[in-house]
Amino acid sequence: MRPPRPTLRCLREDLGRPLPPVTVPLDEIDHPILAKAGKQFADSDTKHERIRDIDDQVLFKVKVQRWRGAVWIDADLPWLVAAGRREDGSGNDFYAALEAEGRAARARYNVAHADALRTETSTAHLLPAREDHVRYQAEAAVRFARRLRVTLLDLARASLRDGREHAVEFDTFTIGLQVRADDGHETYLAVRITGSVPPNVTPLILRHVPGCDVEGWYPEYALPERELLPAEQAWSNIMDPRAAAEVLDDPDDD
Fold first, then answer.
1. How far is residue 104 CA from its own chain's centroid?
2. What DSSP element (H or E) covers 234?
3. Alpha-carbon distance 11 to 34, whole Å?
4. Three-state secondary-structure class, residue 98
5. DSSP characters for 28-84?
6. What pLDDT is recorded for position 254?
7. What is the mean pLDDT of residues 225-252?
8. How many Å apart are CA 208 and CA 215, to the nearest integer?
């Protein structure tokens, strides 16, 4: 199950938060109801309490402190579609108000349409809209770049330790990385990319290799221990020794 995220409407109107730049995924916003939803929906096998008075969609309850929320799941992606806070001393119930809003929306729909809804409520207006899916896709580049940075750092660290090539598979391609020091104490780093990779991704990969000048890459036609395969490309660079030392200084090893 992927981390839950608020719809843009819920973020602005219910949580009262401004829309952050696209470099900040919405599932990382610091808010009690989102943190609770993250724990509650971390495991797809966990049972959740359904909001029974909403019958046109399957919505689940999220409760933390005075916050109440409604979560709708699209495949393996939970969306916080509505949220509210119960004030001290107030008898107002968020879920009762959500039901009342759903009934009112149903009534408005039936007045405006000949084909009346047969459900008691209508909450389709709360579900993710086109702008939500556009935002999610825009964040995909951020998520990929983050994964790429971590992957290349791990590969460089592993190869610095044993001098061998280490590789990781992505969806449609594989990245291999090998670091070697020559007798002149220069540290050479080679990257090979195997499989189908979009043209704009190769520069992104090379840009995130630690300790290498982005202008210092040269195409190679063979790897240190073998020739390239038809579906492979390879690039080489010199790795800064200070950066190599920093890569080896892994805090997780302490």
1. 35
2. strand 232-239
3. 10
4. helix
5. G---HHHHHHHHHTSSTTS---B-TT--SS--EEEEETTEEEEEEEETTEEEEEEEE
6. 46
7. 86
8. 12
- Residue appearing with tokens 């005075």: 66
Where are any strands of DSSP class E within 51-210? 60-64, 67-74, 77-85, 166-169, 173-181, 187-195
Structure tokens at 113: 């349409």
Residue-wise pLDDT tens digits, 103-149 = 999 999 999 999 999 999 999 999 999 999 999 999 988 889 999 99
Task: Let me know: does 70 contact 61? Beta carbons within 8 Å.
Answer: yes
Q: Is the pTM of this model over 0.90?
A: no
In whole angstroms, what is the distance from residue 95 CA to residue 101 CA?
Answer: 10
C-alpha span between 234 and 95 (Å, rounded): 58
Of the candidates 170, 129, 126, 121, the one whose C-alpha atom is nearest the C-alpha of residue 150 is 170
Instruction: Identify the residue whose tokens are 């019958």.
Output: 55
